[in-house]
Fold this sequence. Notes:
Elements: H1 2-13, H2 18-25, H3 41-54, H4 59-76, H5 85-99, H6 103-122, H7 149-158, H8 162-174, H9 178-182, E1 189-190, E2 195-199, E3 205-209, H10 212-224, H11 245-258, H12 266-279, H13 284-291, H14 296-300, H15 308-317
Antiparallel strand pairs: 1-2, 2-3
Amino acid sequence: MQAELLTQITALVGSQFADSISNILSNYDITRKTAPIPPTNTQLLNLFLSAKTIEGKSPKTMMYYKNTLTRLLTTTKKTIKQTTTNDLRNYLSEFQNTHGVSNVTIDNIRRILSSFFSWLEDEDFIIKSPMRRIHKVKTIKVVNKTLSDEDLEKIRETASSYRDRAIVEFLASTGVRVGEIVNLDINAIRLAERSAIVLGKGNSEREVYFDARTKIHLERYLKTRTDKNEALFVSHKRPNNRLTIGTIESIVKKIGEKSLVNHVHPHKFRRTLATRAIDKGMPIEQVQKLLGHVRIDTTMNYAMVNQTNVKISHRKYIG
Length: 319
């Protein structure tokens, strides 16, 4: 760079001053500035995923984020800066038409795209998020059924082993997520206080509570344990590994099928507990705390599940 500049100056002023100018220029580092190379789509996606991982998102959520955004970027074949609102609208519309998915699925994809582009805007990678003008997708609110008292008794009678009965009672009494129950260790259970410390979403701990019946079945189950595994629920066969989410879901499903109760899964116990708590007058803020919801809106969904009280009130007040 310096040699090139000296040649140009010499041509202008002549060789008479060339040596003097050369001596002056030797004291400086003269380099040509080049524009920084903008990050690629892949680099921006990886930065976003790293940020969400630091925020405490679960591996399952991170995989959903990655797959959803990778599919978008592969389909649009545009750089992120070039992606427009119309591109995203067309993508969502074509995805729904091609795959035949529900509005709920499309809205879940929309939320991920909105999170991604909002993060890019906040981090100054783009000027304005193209998702701003794409609003929430209207969805039909499905009334999810809960387990009746009769259903619960059938399930309890069908759970043949001490372990399976303890699982059923713990789910029904605490309303924990299936991911929380598989991570539970024996030392997290306080039998005397009938409580446990579970690790919820976002690696946040909370205390949950269980009834006397659950305490009895936990004690019976733990007395049968001869292994050294610290996990609360383990497999029957050696080496007695900690149960996985899939295994507990399978156990509960089989119990439901054998007891002739339809669509039994771990989350149904959680929904049943929350609905009954609200029906019996537990303040919504306390139900939120019990379930470990960050937003009370999530808890409010359970308040609209059971129509029994509405029916009773209608007969009582209207006729």
